[in-house]
Amino acid sequence: VGLLGLFFAGFHALIMLGDTYSKYQLVQLLLPFRSYQYRPIWVGLGQLGFYAWFLIALTFYIRKAIGKKTWRVIHILSFACYIAALIHGIMSGTDAGTPWAMDFYCITGGCLMFMLVYRILTSRKKARIPAASQRPAQD
Questions:
Q1: Taking Cα atoms as reference points, which of 43, 18, 47 lies closest to residue 30?
Q2: What is the pLDDT along the chain (139 residues), one digit of tens a residue?
């Protein structure tokens, strides 16, 4: 799913080259905060989120080399990538004010918040269980 999302985000950037309204140049798409003609801060935030997402996706392929603990820490940055993409969409998306876009932002953001809270609560519950009760019984 992550690679599919990266593909669509890259496609989104590339089709901007053909947009006659925004008139982006390749350097503006590749370098964050170079979008002088249209909301450079919010476009740049989306670009940074994309690059971070790309780097995080690469860690799937080097997980054994970097170790599980490092991999988990890096993957926590996925939340920041999503937030950057969400803010990018809300602040620089030309359709951001439409009902379908607001529904999309609210639903995906709500799902993320629900899953985050659920994960925090379940990990805290597991941490409170004594270590001896988590081990299988010895015969």
A1: 47
A2: 888 989 999 999 999 888 888 888 888 888 999 888 889 999 999 999 999 999 999 999 999 999 999 998 898 888 889 899 999 999 998 899 999 999 999 999 999 899 989 988 998 777 676 655 555 656 5
